[in-house]
Specification:
single chain, 8 strands, alpha+beta, 4-stranded antiparallel β-sheet
């Protein structure tokens, strides 16, 4: 149940960002917004939907403010939808402090297995010669 609640909250947060509008607060260089077959120059004060495609060439950048106030800088040599370019990267790091290897080393008696080791299968029989 706890995992379901966490998953639901995470899904709601993603949905909010997926449909949020972003306001352009700063532009350096010629950042373009693709609209159909037209390329439109992005200017300070423009509002970009999360599905808007932008192209920031080398040396250009655009600073966007999300609806929740978060500031995102999209640097040059990148293009894609605003949602893709402003996605928060999640890095999971840590150390394993305790392991349980008892389950791996546990032996059971009285049960048959249908497995074979590779060293048993690599005998003198030459299957390819048949």
């Amino acid at each position: 149940m706890k995992k379901f609640v966490i998953f639901t909250i995470l899904l709601c947060v993603i949905a909010v960002f997926a449909f949020a509008d972003f306001t352009v607060t700063s532009v350096t260089g010629n950042v373009m917004r693709v609209s159909g077959s037209q390329n439109i120059l992005v200017r300070v004060g423009d509002t970009l939907a999360s599905d808007a495609v932008i192209d920031a060439p080398e040396g250009a950048s655009v600073v966007l403010r999300a609806a929740n106030g978060r500031i995102i800088t999209v640097t040059g040599a990148r293009n894609g939808t605003v949602a893709e370019l402003t996605r928060v990267a999640v890095n999971i790091t840590g150390n394993v402090s305790r392991t349980n290897t008892d389950a791996v080393n546990r032996q059971t008696t009285g049960s048959a297995t249908a497995s074979a080791r590779a060293s048993d299968a690599a005998g003198d029989d030459d299957i390819a010669a048949e």
